[in-house]
Amino acid sequence: MVPCMSPPSRSKGCPVCGAEPSADQKPFCSEGCRNRDLLQWLGDGYRVPGPPADPEQIMGRTNGLDSDS
């Protein structure tokens, strides 16, 4: 009996425009698309799903993220 094997996965296109990824900019097709993606993250265009943050908890924090206290 021959094991069922899935076909090799194809690489997806550029996450910004869908074009073929460039070897030196992978997974993006160009530096422009890479920069557009970064600007989306920096400008709150992308968001990680989760419950809304409590503004009082955010304002009350005085320690850094790496602090144990």
Automatic annotation (TrEMBL):
SUPFAM superfamilies: Glucocorticoid receptor-like (DNA-binding domain)
GO terms under biological process: regulation of DNA-templated transcription
One Pfam entry name: YacG
GO terms, molecular function: zinc ion binding
Residue numbers spanned by region Disordered: 47-69
Protein name, UniProt field: DNA gyrase inhibitor YacG
Organism of provenance: Parasphingopyxis lamellibrachiae
